[in-house]
Amino acid sequence: xxxxxxxxxTRIVTPSNAREVSKSKNRIHLLECAAQAIHKFGYRGTTTxxxxxxxxxxxxxxxxxxxxxxxxxxALAEDLSERYAxxxxxxLLDTEVSPADRLLGLFRADLSPEVLxxxxxxxxxxxxxxxxxxxxxxxxxxxxxxxxxxSLIEICSALKxxxxxxxxxxxxxxNCVIALLExxxxxxxLHSADFDRGKAEEACVYMVRSFFPDHF
Amino acid sequence: xxxxxxxxxTRIVTPSNAREVSKSKNRIHLLECAAQAIHKFGYRGTTTxxxxxxxxxxxxxxxxxxxxxxxxxxALAEDLSERYAxxxxxxLLDTEVSPADRLLGLFRADLSPEVLxxxxxxxxxxxxxxxxxxxxxxxxxxxxxxxxxxSLIEICSALKxxxxxxxxxxxxxxNCVIALLExxxxxxxLHSADFDRGKAEEACVYMVRSFFPDHF
DNA sequence: CAGATGAATAAACGTATGTTCATTTTGTGA
DNA sequence: TCACAAAATGAACATACGTTTATTCATCTG
Lengths: 216, 216
Hints:
Chains A, B: Pfam families: TetR_C_6 (PF13977), TetR_N (PF00440). Chains A, B: Residues 24-84 form the HTH tetR-type domain. Chains A, B: Residues 47-66 bind DNA. Chains A, B: InterPro entries: BetI_C, DNA-bd_HTH_TetR-type_CS, Homeodomain-like_sf, HTH-type_TetR-like_transc_reg, HTH_TetR, Tet_transcr_reg_TetR-rel_C_sf. The structure is a homodimer. Chain A has two domains: 1-67, Orthogonal Bundle (Arc Repressor Mutant, subunit A); 76-216, Tetracycline Repressor, domain 2. Helix content of chain A is 68%, strand content 0%. Chain A has helices at residues 18-45, 48-55, 61-66, 69-92, 99-110, 118-128, 138-141, 146-163, 170-190, 197-211. The model of chain A is unreliable at 6-12 (pLDDT under 50). Chain A is mainly α. Chain A has ten helices and no strands. The interface between A and B is large, with 46 and 45 residues. Chain B binds a DNA duplex through residues 17-19, 22-23, 26, 47-49, 57-64, 67-69.
């Protein structure tokens, strides 16, 4: 699984000349190597030395581009959460699509290799492991945020109304969807070799079918 | 939330004299301080120096008792997973209780402060963050193991038979329960201040009620 | 093309970290 | 009570780590 860091243009000024192009390339390269290092050596094992070694660049580059290693890691976390957010936003916020299809689309998107891949998930877990010590990390690794949750509740409410499921509870259903997806990610992280995206999706659909039988 | 490390007698020979008592106490004390350090400083921030500082003991003690820092952390992971396992085993393996009550008991047990508390969850996430780099950690932090899963499938099968739910799929239902609980733990880890055990349990019950309406 | 500017390099530095070991303290058994 | 043994101590050590900085290299501008 390849990162699409190169496609992230959010914080990188569009380079206007060759010098800026190479600077920007090196910045992205360092982010990619930091990601690789976390995946390969773990969060504890990630050092400026092995990021530098992976990059093939010189020792000073991390500080030149990011001032400090901590900043490089923060930039990586930001990047990760932005890519994750844009992934679910494409699906959840598209109100042209029916609620049921938005939910199915979310499962697909959330379980797709674009976001659910060994390296990225390793990074999520790396930052999450620090959250009790560094609360400032929270905003970067908690992308299933208020908007995400609100969209899900809205979808579940719509399904309830459409299907006339008198027993349905949109808030609880949304909470279940969020937790279930989180759980699938954990399962992937711990057993990526055996993980079956299809079966994971099947389980998700099974759950929402139980909630909203006529829709799925 | 206090650890019950002192109650763990598995690997600690019952001390027969005062000297062994104090040795055993210090060993446990170091494990507790390592746990505290991970919670307080994060996995990266956990050093022999701050474990030692928290313990009030001398520098050499970690190596005297555990040979290396890595060994101390491994002992902590083992301890954690054993305490977690005994927590669910009490509930899931008690065949005197009805399947439905075993499932409800599991939710209670899995969401109880005995295992779901800030410090212990921080340690789970700490070790999980290293799993892609150190596969040997896997066995310690993946306590929701084959037996756990098999018990759940058995319970779901029994519920299906009892209730005549022709549409029910015990394997998918069990997968959902596992993932849902994992997701709840993640939610707790990221939002322990706002986390409501009652609401988490409610969501769990809501899901299994959807699977097996007549039972819950 | 030459001078100026910014990017990249890698040696050097100070500190932090994990571990060792000679020494001291404490408890045990005769 | 005393010699012995085990446990605990903390100074000392080597290495690893993140960062700084003087220097070199590449590119842009006039």
